[in-house]
Q: What sequence folds into this?
């Protein structure tokens, strides 16, 4: 044997076989149940928005890598596709196409590539895209098609309010949760996805199924989702116990809006979340409490996106001070 | 005695495919090679001083190099023959180090060595035990090659409580310790009794991963009559056989962090199963450490084997006996796939610390392309010592050695779990090794000032 043909490298000489591409593919698979629900609830409108978001996100990343950064495009790792689909999940199914494309541009070009691409962005790109759209086009971003109004939703303008918006408005006008109940979908409908809202946040069942898959594949750990949902339930539960006439119960808070989508898919984004369990609890706990705070005391009916982005800012600090248990110390 | 659910260490660890291709292959003698190269430094500590010169005739088992200082080990001729020369020879590190090179003749053993296979159970007194182990040049056969007689003379301020025997063999592919436990259980148990007496204690525990139920049962049966010797099945998880992980799993105690912490700090002495067998032979049979079991294996190796090999035998002899080097071989590794060293030559000789020879095909030899760190934290969850490999790599890359020191870079035991799990194929451990070396250098410079 000619020794010059042997590879000499330091250990290990064996690997787990995991790769960024496999992980991103796994996330896309985990998003499928919720995506299928969105197609059932909103029909072609959901397909259009999600296809536009995914294609434009991948396209923008490719262009920037190839022509501005002048390096080999790495869009095949799947991370841009995940960002695109998550952005689509966070907007109404009736959002005009050019706004979807603009949101993708902000998510990829501004929130991700300016910081150095995958792994370097401090804030969740999809949420930056969503919040940009929300503050720029508040009407389009809060015009919710009525579930099961089919492809006509965008055309004939059959719209409705989200459960959280109904509650926000009602409570402001002095009504009690009990009086508002008749206007709200039943809990079973909330669980299955028969309510107004963003494209991907419909069905708790579908989101939990995706989360179970992520846990099974060991793509995420349980810490962040449990901390987000647990703290949101605990804080809203506390308020509800203090004054059930003024505040909604914790089950309603957890099943509506983007808490499950945020807890399972957005807050667990590797790049923008802490590295060790202790930090993950602080991060997730902060998101849950901030979300309920914004919903109950803030101006917006929903606060998951803002809560996650605010806590994203704390991640470097959390990583700096939360250390794993060092063996032998 | 076997107890309920398997014990394990509390944090980190990975599950590589165990690939124990040679688990059912009985121990067999490797034919004597034509020449051997016996390195003078096969152990941690000072190299041994040669007692022979070119032209001398030596018999198998004859002392040819004397331990130099307390932490060092005697070296014996592993074959009979004439000393050709004492010359630097490349070892597994790739560096050349002095070795005694012998032309092999027909085997003729030095006097006083009992070569019979009968089991001798009566053990001598403590002084005798330590003297015989030191004389036989016994070092840790698990890989670190620390001289065994030193472990038997712990400092007086550190009282011993437990003798722990490492039969874990958590490295994928390797089966040398497994076969030894299955085929030489009585000798191993007698060796454990010898070490207990040498340490002056009466509690021993043999840790074995659950994927070797035959070894667990056979050793438990052999230890039945000795209430102080317990066999403990351990969960299959790499690096269960790491010294810190093993002590934690078996006793619940945590050895203080490296580079200073030792098992003796928590009242434990840890010996590998192969070492225990060598201790038996040294004390009961007067046989110096001149041969050991080496696993020769790999996905494309024709006959994965467990050979009794004389120290100094060149690696190509082992590969030949296992069916030759397969086509499209990409990498040859001394040791296992997680912590072994890749070689650039098959002429390197077997030493006391060589546990296996792993031959990997080309498609498993190359590293994948390095991608950005996606901060998935898999390395943090995999680290058995509670370190943050992604952070250490970043600090070393930027040469921030003070911060790397503060983040415990020196605690790394180089088990490879971090690099193993990284989905971006980042060379985490390479940078951590560099960081350790640079931090040590810096500390040394500061001391001199």
A:
């Amino acid at each position: 044997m000619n020794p010059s043909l042997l590879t000499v490298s330091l250990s290990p000489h064996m690997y787990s076989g995991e790769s960024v591409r496999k992980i991103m593919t796994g996330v896309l698979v985990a998003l499928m149940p919720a995506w299928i629900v969105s197609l059932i609830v909103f029909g072609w409108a959901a397909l259009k928005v999600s296809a536009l978001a995914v294609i434009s996100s991948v396209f923008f990343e490719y262009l920037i890598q190839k022509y501005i950064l002048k390096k080999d495009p790495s869009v095949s790792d799947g991370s841009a596709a995940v960002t695109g689909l998550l952005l689509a999940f966070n907007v109404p199914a009736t959002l005009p196409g050019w706004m979807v494309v603009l949101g993708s541009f902000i998510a990829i070009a501004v929130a991700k590539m300016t910081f150095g691409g995958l792994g370097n962005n401090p804030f969740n790109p999809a949420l930056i895209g969503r919040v940009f759209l929300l503050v720029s086009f508040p009407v389009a971003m809060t015009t919710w098609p009525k579930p099961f109004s089919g492809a006509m939703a965008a055309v004939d303008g059959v719209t409705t309010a989200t459960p959280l918006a109904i509650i926000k408005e009602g409570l402001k006008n002095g009504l009690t949760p009990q009086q508002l109940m008749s206007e709200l979908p039943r809990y079973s409908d909330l669980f299955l996805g028969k309510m107004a809202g963003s494209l991907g946040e419909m069905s708790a069942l579908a989101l939990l199924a995706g989360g179970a898959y992520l846990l099974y594949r060991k793509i995420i750990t349980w810490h962040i989702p449990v901390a987000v949902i647990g703290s949101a339930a605990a804080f809203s539960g506390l308020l509800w116990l203090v004054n059930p006439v003024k505040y909604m119960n914790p089950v309603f808070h957890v099943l509506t809006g983007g808490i499950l989508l945020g807890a399972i898919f957005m807050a667990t984004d590797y790049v923008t979340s802490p590295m060790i369990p202790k930090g993950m609890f602080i991060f997730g706990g902060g998101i849950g409490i901030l979300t309920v705070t914004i919903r109950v005391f803030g101006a917006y009916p929903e606060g998951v996106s803002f809560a996650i982005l605010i806590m994203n800012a704390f991640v470097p600090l959390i990583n700096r001070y939360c250390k794993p248990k060092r063996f032998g110390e | 005695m076997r107890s309920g659910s398997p014990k394990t260490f509390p944090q980190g660890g990975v599950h590589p495919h165990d690939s124990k291709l040679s688990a059912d292959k009985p121990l067999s003698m490797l034919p004597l090679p034509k020449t051997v190269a016996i390195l003078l430094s096969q152990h941690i500590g000072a190299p041994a001083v040669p007692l022979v010169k070119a032209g001398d005739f030596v018999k198998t088992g004859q002392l040819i190099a004397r331990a130099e200082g307390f932490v060092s080990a005697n070296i014996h001729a592993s074959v009979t023959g004439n000393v050709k020369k004492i010359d630097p020879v490349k070892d597994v590190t790739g560096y050349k180090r002095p070795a005694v090179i012998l032309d092999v003749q027909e085997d003729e053993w030095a006097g006083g060595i009992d070569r019979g296979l009968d089991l001798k159970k009566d053990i001598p007194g403590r002084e005798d035990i330590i003297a015989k182990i030191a004389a036989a040049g016994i070092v840790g056969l698990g890989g670190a090659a620390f001289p065994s007689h030193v472990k038997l003379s712990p400092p007086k301020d550190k009282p011993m409580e437990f003798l722990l025997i490492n039969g874990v063999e958590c490295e994928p592919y390797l089966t040398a310790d497994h076969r030894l436990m299955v085929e030489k259980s009585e000798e191993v148990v007698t060796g454990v009794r010898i070490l207990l007496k040498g340490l002056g204690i009466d509690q021993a525990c043999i840790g074995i991963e659950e994927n070797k139920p035959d070894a667990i049962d056979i050793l438990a049966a052999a230890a039945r009559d000795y209430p102080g010797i317990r066999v403990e099945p351990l969960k299959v998880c790499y690096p269960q056989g790491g010294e810190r992980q093993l002590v934690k799993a078996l006793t619940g105690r945590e050895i203080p962090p490296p580079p200073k912490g030792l098992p003796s700090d928590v009242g434990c002495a840890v010996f590998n199963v192969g070492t225990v067998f060598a201790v038996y032979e040294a004390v009961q049979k007067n046989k110096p450490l001149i041969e050991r079991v080496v696993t020769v294996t790999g996905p494309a190796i024709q006959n994965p084997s467990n050979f009794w090999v004389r120290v100094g035998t060149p690696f190509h002899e082992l590969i030949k006996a296992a069916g030759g080097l397969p086509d499209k071989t990409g990498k040859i590794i001394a040791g296992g796939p997680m912590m072994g060293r890749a070689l650039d030559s098959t002429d390197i000789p077997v030493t006391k610390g060589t546990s296996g020879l792993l031959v990997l095909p080309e498609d498993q030899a190359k590293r994948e392309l390095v991608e950005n760190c996606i901060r998935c934290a898999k390395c943090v969850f995999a680290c058995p010592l509670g370190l943050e490999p992604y952070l250490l790599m970043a600090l070393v890359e930027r040469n921030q050695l003070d911060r790397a020191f503060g983040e415990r870079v020196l605690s790394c035991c180089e088990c490879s779990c971090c690099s193993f799990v990284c989905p971006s194929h980042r060379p985490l451990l390479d940078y951590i090794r560099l960081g350790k070396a640079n931090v040590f250098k810096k500390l040394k410079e500061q001391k001199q000032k």
Notes: Chain B has a mean pLDDT of 93.
